[in-house]
Amino acid sequence: MESAFERSAGQEALIADWNPPVIDTSKPHSARIYDYLLGGKTNFAPDREAAEQTLAAVPHASIAARANRAFLLRAVDHLARTGVRQFLDIGTGIPIEGRNTHDAAQAVAPESRVVYVDNDPIVLAHARALLSSHADGATAYIDADARDPEAILAHSALSETLDLDQPLAVLMLAVLHFFPDDDKPADVLQRLTDRLPAGSHLVLSHLTGDFDPVTTGGGVTVYRKSGIPMQVRSRTELAALLPDGWEPLEPGVELVSHWRAEDGADLPDPSEIGCYGLVARKL
């Protein structure tokens, strides 16, 4: 077994060998729009313009984005406290200092191991921040498309970091609403999780129009006009994406702001969130 120092050195060497990714800043990108909504600085004029148009259509979009990030951290914290030590985070997005999957997991269990997956060049450019693992654990980054589960599962960085014969948690936060029905999201999830052992977990979040369809529809229109495909889904439609043999944990499909919220938390109105969260376990 290689040491933490050797893993870190190998990861640094991998980064050093990467050619600078080609980043098209002339068009808005979903990850950079999301970064802007979270108050980040890794975005460009077209992203900010699209984000402002989104805010004009959906005034609470920033609140929903922050609630989604908080759900990610709560879900990872919960899973780490129940013994999960392996995480596969697909559609990682731009790193946020101290608020990434490995930060939450390793705060509970420093030996936790995390593999991040994204195909956005700007995320690749910031991957160094995702490799800042605790010495007792490990992190890795894979440049791959969520629509190609086979490429993700076959990648050497995955097998070198995670043990697929042991339970792990797969995270796809705010990803599947960028998969129209033609992309067959249920099939993608089935292929991604089919070989995972019992006791594995799946964490999803997804935009919905259940609470304010007119406002949400305006936001969808902005994204589509920006060249970004988007399809919101109902509570029932999100639950139907789960592969056979997966059982939702309590409270099931719930607003990300309400999923296992802290006692006494001041919860926003559902119309301000419009995003469901779900954590399921493989039986």
Task: Explain how this protein is built.
The protein is an alpha/beta fold. The chain has a single domain (63-210, 232-282), classed as Rossmann fold. It has twelve helices and eight strands. Strands 1, 2, 3, 4, 5, 6, 7 and 8 form an eight-stranded mixed β-sheet that branches. The chain starts with a helix and ends with a strand.
Summed up, the domain count is 1
Q: What is the CA-CA span between the terminal residues?
A: 31 Å
CATH topology: Rossmann fold
Structural class: alpha/beta
- H/E order of the elements? HHHHEHEHHEHHEHEHHEEE
Largest sheet: 8 strands, mixed
Overall form = globular
Q: Tell me how many strands there are.
A: 8
Radius of gyration, rounded?
Answer: 18 Å
Report the top-level CATH class.
Alpha Beta
Task: Give the number of helices.
Answer: 12
The CATH superfamily appears as Vaccinia Virus protein VP39
Poorly predicted ranges: 1-10, 12-18
What value does the average pLDDT take? 91
State which percent range the strand residues make up.
Answer: 5-15%
Helix content range of the residues, please? 25-40%
Summarize the structure.
The protein has about 280 residues and is α/β, with parallel strands linked by helices. The chain has 12 helices and 8 strands.
